[in-house]
Design a protein that fits this description.
Elements: H1 10-19, H2 28-47, H3 63-79
Length: 84
């Protein structure tokens, strides 16, 4: 891993570290990858698939959600509540 990922959910990250099981002969990259995979799995299990795991990540938005947001934005613009 060339870039450091900063977890958004510190308590879940700490739990992932406590649950991590390593074996002799694993290098830092392998352990780090296992830790981050476990953390991402736990975040999705606890908080849902659309929740970002790291600072700088964007939340996953499916097509229906994006369309609903765009329709809401147009409605608010039409009513004058937000600028066009």
């Amino acid at each position: 891993m060339s870039e450091e990922k900063i977890p958004l959910h510190e308590a879940i990250f700490q739990d992932a570290k406590l649950q991590l099981k390593t074996s002799a002969g694993q290098n830092f990259e392998q352990v780090s990858e296992m830790l981050h995979n476990n953390y991402e799995c736990m975040v999705r299990r606890y908080l849902g698939d659309d929740v970002p795991c790291y600072k700088g990540d964007r939340a996953y938005v499916n097509e229906a959600q994006a369309k609903a947001r765009e329709n809401f934005k147009r409605k608010m613009q039409a009513s004058g509540r937000i600028p066009k």
